[in-house]
Amino acid sequence: MACADPAAAVCVPPGAFVERLCEKAHQDYALALFSRDSPFTRLYLRGKMDELVMDEEVLALRFRAPQKGGIVVGSGNGSYDVLRWDGTCSTGVEAEMLSRSRPPQSKTATVRWHRIAERVQDALIASSDAVKKAHAKRGKECQGAMSGDVSASCERADKALVAAIVDYVRTHEEIAIP
């Protein structure tokens, strides 16, 4: 997929794709869109905003320019619709709340293993020893639990699996999506 407008300062996906993407959470597409060679502009939160956290990495999906004339709400610099690592979209993030400079330790929304299509899960396990090991450990520690009351060791194993997935996606060119 290419930028909607290659001449624009911010590379965003085509509008029709963004509309479909933001109808519901799409964990698989988020992983593909965050892959290393994705052309889309990465942005980082400068502070906490609603469910977004400081230093969270997001992708620009659409820029909403400030309205001409009338009452200006916020800074008047416009806002972005963004994609989070968990496949959800956040709308109306004020431009001054975002930076293109990657912080030393960027954060991500929590990737949910059970929301990844089985085909993509299989590809991740087959392609990455770190994901394979983290997945096996999570299976042992969590014994099939996806949510609810889980042990501290299950929570640690889940976080390790998420970290392995994020590391793999950030360092590899392409992620297969259904």
Give a short synopsis of this structure.
This protein is α+β, with helices and mostly antiparallel strands and 178 residues long.
Please supply descriptive tags for the structure shown above.
14% strand; 178 residues; alpha+beta; five-stranded antiparallel beta sheet
Task: Give the strand content.
Answer: 5-15%
Q: Roughly how many Å apart are the termini?
A: 15 Å
Strand order of the largest sheet: 4-3-2-1-5
Gyration radius, rounded: 17 Å
Account of the 3D structure:
By secondary structure, the protein is α+β, with helices and mostly antiparallel strands. It folds into two domains: 15-99, no CATH class; 113-171, no CATH class. 33% of the residues lie in helices and 14% in strands. The chain has five helices and five strands, in the order ααβββββααα. It has helices at residues 15-21, 27-33, 118-127, 129-142, 152-171, and strands spanning 42-45, 57-64, 79-83, 89-94, 98-99. The chain has a five-stranded antiparallel sheet. Helix 3 (118-127) packs across helix 4. The mean pLDDT is 90.
SSE blueprint and pairings:
Layout: H1 15-21, H2 27-33, E1 42-45, E2 57-64, E3 79-83, E4 89-94, E5 98-99, H3 118-127, H4 129-142, H5 152-171
Antiparallel strand pairs: 1-2, 1-5, 2-3, 3-4
